[in-house]
Amino acid sequence: MVGMLKAVRFLAPAMVLGAVPMAGNAWAAGRSEPWQMWFQEPASPVMERIVEFHDIIFAIEVGVVILVLGILCYVIVRFNAKSNPVPSTTTHNTLLEVTWTAVPVLILIIIAVPSMKLLYYADRVEKAEMTLKITGNQWFWTYAYPDHGGFSFDSVIVPDDELKKGQPRLLTVDNPVVLPAQTNVRLLFTSADVIHDWAVPSLGLKLDAVQGRINESWVRINAEGDYYGMCSELCGVNHGFMPVHVKAVSKQAFQAWIDKAKQEFANTDNAAAVRMAAGAPDR
Amino acid sequence: MANQAATAPGEHEHRPTGWRRWVYSTNHKDIGTMYIVLSMVAALIGGGMSMLIRLELMEPGIQYITDFQFYNVVVTGHGFIMVFFVVMPALIGGFGNWFVPLMIGAPDMAFPRMNNISFWLLAAALLLLLIAAFTQGGPGTGWTVYPPLSNIDFHPGAAVDFGILSLHLAGASSVLGAINFITTIFNMRAPGLTMHRMPLFCWAILVTAFLLLLAIPVLAGGLTMLLTDRNFGTAFFEVAGGGDPVLWQHLFWFFGHPEVYIIIIPAFGIISQVVSTFSRKPIFGYLGMAYAMVFIGFVGFVVWAHHMYTAGLDADTRAYFVGATLVIAVPTGIKIFSWLATMWGGSIDFRTPMLFACGFIFLFVLGGVTGVALANSGIDLAWHDTYFVVAHFHYVMAIAAVFGMFAGYYYWIGKMSGRQYPRVLARIHFWTFFVGVNLVFFPQHFLGMAGMPRRIPDYPDAYAGWNYVSSAGAFITSFATLLFFYIVWRTLTSGEKVAANQWGEGAKTLEWTVASPAPFHTHEDLPDMTGKQPAE
After folding, report:
1. Which of B244, B26, B396 minimizes the C-alpha distance to A191?
2. A65–B366 CB contact, under 8 Å
3. What is the ipTM of this complex?
4. Partners of residue A240 in chain B, C-beta under 8 Å
5. Residues B459-483: pLDDT tens digits?
């Protein structure tokens, strides 16, 4: 069943746009490709389940649209004034009315069951192996590692004119957040000022960072790599310029990074905030 | 005045002229006309703002708007203007005022003077919103106005306060209008016109009026709380004072979700009238249609937090909202199938109003299925605050509701002005607008799937392709809209004169029994509807 739905997933964009070539399996993990029409390649169990769930509802969506369009086209051809000069007077059909009430109810139940499973699965993890605390600021993220000595650092966008070759525009930061792959990580979110939203599409992650509360989610990154996202709640003038860059490394590399980071970020004094205020990206 | 009955019917001593006719109007037709004119003016402003956005987003990098506060103000203004000053005035203030009294056989609305103040409050509200945009940086908060961003620390100055006052006036305008419609529909139907014989457009306006009556006060409460937080030291949403920003979201969306039904339900009503007239068949399943709208309105009040799935709500709470939101698909589906069943077996004349109605049915379903998908909190993790949501709500509002507006315009302009629209130009308008809006919004589904967030002035290079297509569509849509304004001018200045009933046997509602243009006063003798067939 799922395999068939996967086929629908691959066929559907082609159905929709005819000859537009599909990106196929060349999707890069971690960020969008040009002309992308589909989700980014999933890199966490939550995103994998989101993609599977989408296969189900997309099939239903396409089915409903084709059904309605089909009936509409038929009616236009068969019952226009030339083809059917005398209109009927039918205004009721109990069987039809019951059917088109009951069948949608059934379809909604078919949607609701996996939907609830996904909701609860994505909500939180039973056994977290470590915690990452994420604070939203205008206009950068601060990451703290409470289980690893409690150090924290800021992650600020690198402006266009300071990008090195190969670094993606508007997604590159000075200090990416480093996490170990294949590890259940509890994520805690809050904000130092307005509401922000930390999102990484390929990991199926999105949660608001709100002052005065701590929101919780979790992630397990399947493989090492770079995963990007952007702030997803309007937070002021540079809302479009506070990206998220998650760098997933092996557990050993993570431990090595932790040891280095503890020293490097020991004297974190909100240097980034000062830089922002001094007008670093004027954009 | 005691001898009023002695004067002959139709005589009116003080028919106003000049500016007093409009400023002091108590005539439902004139007030309806003013609402439509306001809606057209606002459409040019709101549409202009959307063109600014699409121009900037046409290519990656920053080309035109270097002041990002201004960009956020344009995004905010675009949303407010389209919702409150284009769609609502056209459908409710405009067509509602014009045709509810005509359709139920009433000489005017129950409270003609209150009708006047409803209109002028809205005009003042529009002015205040425009002032807000130019005050000290403007409100760059989005139409959702979330604190802390909208609170005094992050939006100092008076811009947000002007915005709040604008919304208070617009809200008051709508509530007074709602009282007027409810009273008129319940009490002033012609003898024999029972509720179950009333045209579906009247049902639509009745349901919409109740939604307005119950939802707007909650918005007003929230707005007042934000105003006092900003200016008088309260801490409803101010964390340092013990408040909660998420409280605003609950209050706003408790209004905000019924608001979107307020926008679409009148369009549903117009589509029912148009489909029935041009299929030359009564609407299939009249009672189902009427009560589907009631049900949608009712359930629409208990689903608001599906706009807040990533705010940090508890999982069980979100599970409830998923279930409740999915439920709305059932009555909506009943309406779609009923329109199709009305057309089935009909003898359909594909005049321009019917083109827009057919377009509505298809495009509303397209927007509706993405709505059913978005109802699911789990998958909303991928879609919240992305262009997928933008695509969804523009399909159901900017496309479907606007198609409803155009269907109403082409259907009723003959009755309102006495002149017919130019037929060939109208068809060109339909097709170019259809192509344009689909080009703008369909690719936005892809952008959202790929992860592009909302409300950003620039984007990573990978999103360039579909953004370009969307912006190209915006130019086509602009051309189509300018063509529409030309059509309006042509109609009013040199359109063919029309008879009382220009649409033939399918047009069975009471407005087609009066002359075109409808006289200043109509139904001064109440029509006797006892024993007549339901006026579909």
Report:
1. B244
2. yes
3. 0.92
4. 68, 453, 455-459
5. 999 999 999 999 999 999 999 999 9
